[in-house]
Fold these 3 entries.
Entry 1:
Amino acid sequence: MIRVVQQSLLGSILSNMLLVLGCAFFTGGIVHYKKVQVFNKAAAVVNSGLLLMAVMGILFPAVLHFTHSEVHLGKSVLSLSRFSSCIMLVAYASYLFFQLRSQQNFYSPVDEEVDTCENSDEEEELELTKWEAIIWLGILTVWVSVLSGYLVDAIE
């Protein structure tokens, strides 16, 4: 069961960092077909650096385990895993501090050029209100927990 949890963590890291970002780019390209999309390069560099650190934190203990080059069987992999998890936790906490406190304007949305075909006077209406979004979040959270329960029962 521990192996399932480890693989689930790896899958969630990769899906959140790669799949969600790729889907956002793809959907943005479909929705804003004739417009030029603008992305914050510095934020992308920070996110890719965190992704690289996460991959290395998972990859290095696995390489040590599969090469059988450790001095004390089992203890080297465990200590390297604990050390890399502590480093990743500190890096994530500093990233959150950097994003939420010290550089708030750094992550503000970049102004996109307005297309000449559209009226600039028209404002886009919100598709969901704040409370509708909270209600949907609650419903989907309950749904995911129910499906997770079925998944765990199927694995056992």
Entry 2:
Amino acid sequence: MLAAALAPPASKGHFDELRGGHAHVQPPQSQSQSQSQSQGTQGQSEPILQANTTAGLAPHWTTFFNFLGEGGFEDLNHRTANLRRQIRDNGVTYNVYADANGPQRPWSLDLFPLIISSDDWAGIEAGITQRTRLLNAVMADVYGPQTLLRRGLLPAALVQGHPGYLRAMQGVQPAGNMFLHIAAFDMTRGPDGKWWVVGQRTQAPSGLGYLLENRLSISMLFPEAFRGMQVQRLADSYESLINSMKALSPVANSRIVLLTPGPYNETYFEHAYLARYLGLTLVEGSDLLVRHEKLYLKTLRGLEPVHGILKRLDDEFLDPLELRSDSTLGVPGLLQVIRAGNVQVANAPGSAFLESPALLGFLPALSEHLLGETLALPSLSTWWCGEQAVMQDMLPQLKNCVIKPTYPGSRMESVIGHTLSQRGLDEWAGRILRHGEDYTVQAYVPLAQTPTWQGEKIAPRSVMLRVFALPDGTGGWRVLPGGLARLAGKNENIASMQRGGSSADAWALGQEAHSQQPVPGTATPVVPEPAVSVPALPLLRKQPVTSRAAENLFWLGRYTERAENSLRLAQITLQSLAGEDQSSQPLMSWVNQMAVSHCLVLPDVPAATQAKRVFERSLIAALGNTATHASVGF
């Protein structure tokens, strides 16, 4: 507890999660904007604040450290070692393509969770649920009557000019009018302690599997704190997702699959983990087949119907017949099956335009129009530079903002204004003047900093929280309690796993968490919660073996048998060459011919009868040669 109190404070201008930092507010500067683009909720700008580092620990962090007992730093080091061992044993990985040492590395998880008080979580939950209803209503209008476009509440350039808008989905109305089954929102806490929405992901949001692994790992390391602080559980949210998809499927006894791009995707581990946890069949596009406007799974027993898809594949790759013709990841004819209403897809194709940062500036007005409600959870002030008045007003303020691409595919990363020189700011101003609609400007807010365990000490690191809205089974949405906390790496402005960041579990506390006191010696093991309730388990289908998986198993068995035979033959050959007794000349000739014919050595290697030691070394080296397809190591 004393060590926690002596931990270094958050950086200047950042909210200190450990101390629940108070802040000194300076009057906000007024900023002009177009009539259609509002500045967050209630038209407010972000205040310029400085965290107060003299406050004591926040109540929930005090409770957390009290539950740790008297083990001290040595106990935390021991738990860290256990955490790393568990991640290694579980094979949790993440593909980092920017890593020069290789794309695949172990999942990075910090020892301490991000703790969210019950009051803060209640506000987040209400705001995220409202935003999910709004985004679903926007998508229903865009692919339906398009009143938002006709009335000018939403610029056509941000919808029909966005590559994520799919004209093939125009007029499609999914079952229950539910376009979005999973919506992810990236959030941060400003220096004033308020939560702000930074962005949203609707096409194929990642994190549901990793946050589950984070929860299971951290809850087992801190069982007393996890139970005593009344951390809200996750399993009910996953169960409601599956139950909702089954309820909206075209048949009663439906089969749902998880569609993945394959093992080369950066989050493939999560796809496999989530499919197993939810009891779904993990499939690739080649495992599925369309016949007579219906979708089928190719198995050893023949074709089996599929009624629901939980997709982790970007929309443009879904159907090579109507979208990208060069895609080998999708299913030819899938969009026609969707239009016919014979398969339920989560999320419905065509939601990618909702991910544009420019849309955030229009959501307050859209909420008033579609829901008749004011947004409960504000977005960071956002301006789309496709409107002349907005662009002219924002150019002088670029230094205090973040420049983002409006559309995907530009390969442009976000640019933080205050990191640029005056020359750099002028160059960006020129780009925006020439191609305004390609850029969106968002107010910069320093990320909150949470305590982490770094090298035997507590250190603050910038954090961004991703929360998820899932169906509640009654036609609405619920927010999965907690989320995926992403920790920034060396650059405190960016929290990204692809850029050297890490992750943390996120604990959303229940209403009674403050009243729980630590009782030594009362810890009980934390048992992983199944996504499907126990009474439903006997009703689950037996998992089929897909034709692709069966073929892979066949070749695995064949090459394993070949490797075993090659090793046995190599052993016999080496035994014939070893020892003081020289084998007979005919036997050595036969051994030499057999080794060459079975590709144990190359034909140009001197024969065993001529240079026994050279032959022996060549045989051993060839076994592990990864460049030769006939070797054991290939």
Entry 3:
Amino acid sequence: MMLRGMGFDNTTSLYVASGKIYNAEKYMTPLRELFPLLQTKETITSPEELAQFKGHSSRLAALDYTVCLRSEAFVMTQGSNFPHFLMGHRRYLYGGHAKTITPDKQKMVLLFDNPDIRSALSDCYPTCLSARRSWRRPEFRHVKSGYRHLASFHLDSQF
């Protein structure tokens, strides 16, 4: 739904970089209906090609990394090392102009927590998404840790 709200239509090719998805048929069907050109490791490789990677999670992750690295746009959905390394690598390769979408999870929670999701989609969805498209205008997070304040205090103070 987020991608549809941003203007991606059913002619958009999507690659889902993930491990084994629990009950994939049930949970991936709505996404596949919105984006019929949905791809995974299993759909872009033959069983023979994929067999050499079975049992090697790092090699499987490297396949995902390579596909995401060369993609036109990348949507970050989690805060682990994988997307952060990938974002940095894409910025380096494309001179800082790689399309990376980082959804604002706090606003998305408000949207999906609404029991009347249809009205939420029409009212909140465009504004919830438009502020976080990093290739247009990045938003900077405010650091709440006290460690930065201590470091700047010691650097600014004179002994």
